[in-house]
Amino acid sequence: MGVREIYGRSDYAIIGELIEPGTRVLDLGCGEGLLLAWLKENKQVNARGVEMVGASVQKAIARGVSVYQGDLETALEDYPDGAFDYVILSQTLQETRHPLKVLESMLRIGRYAIVAFPNFGHWSVRWAHLWTGRAPKTELFPHDWYDSPNIHFLTVFDFAALAHKQHWKIERSMFLAGGSQVKTFPNMMAEVAVFLFSASP
After folding, report:
1. What is the largest CA-CA distance in the chain?
2. Helices 99-109/156-166 angle, 10° precision
3. Distance between CA atoms of residues 10 and 7, nearest Å
4. Which residue has the higher pLDDT, 201 or 82?
5. pLDDT reading at 106 higher than 90
6. Mean pLDDT across the stretch 54-67?
């Protein structure tokens, strides 16, 4: 059974496909360890996680996943260069204080980095902003501006431009809407973007 069938997360399904069996994986902001537990069982990875919420850490540990409780931005500094094959940051990049520093640290400690984030360029967000004249509030971004965990709003184009500027190599990119893959106009049609990338040689 696939990871999406178990957990209902299309980004998990994509990430599960990208990870090679038997590799070393670190999941930043891993929550209750659902993805890591699946990867450990089905792909026999050496799974590690970082999560800030204590209750989530306990649930992850109960699933048999090794999880460190702490702030992911601080925790990244503690890992040596090349400690992992893959470093995952799913649905959390937009909540980090210093996203560029986080991405650079992911590439320092991992051979590959995988990020998944909600696409602020989606047509529904554009329409909500245009129609209401207020900070967008949609199914994709359901929070009011004053209590949203999202502090950086990025689009598919924004991430691709950053990768180009930093000379990162985008190994694969996949775009999702309603659980299905988006093949055309991803900056407007995708709800979630997933990028597998690496540092330039």
Report:
1. 49
2. 60
3. 9
4. 82
5. yes
6. 93
Supply the pLDDT for residue 87. Answer: 98
The answer to whether the CB of 68 falls within 8 A of the CB of 49 is yes
- The structural domains of the chain, ordered by start, are 3-198 (3.40.50.150)
Please tell me the distance from the alpha carbon of residue 35 to that of residue 32, in angstroms, as a whole number.
Answer: 9
Structure tokens at 42: 């089905």
d(CA 88, CA 154): 18
pLDDT in tens, 141-196: 777 877 777 778 899 999 999 999 999 999 999 999 887 889 999 999 999 999 99
Find out whether 159 and 99 touch, Cβ atoms under 8 Å: no
List 113's β-bridge partners, or say none: 87, 197
Q: Is the pLDDT of residue 113 over 60?
A: yes
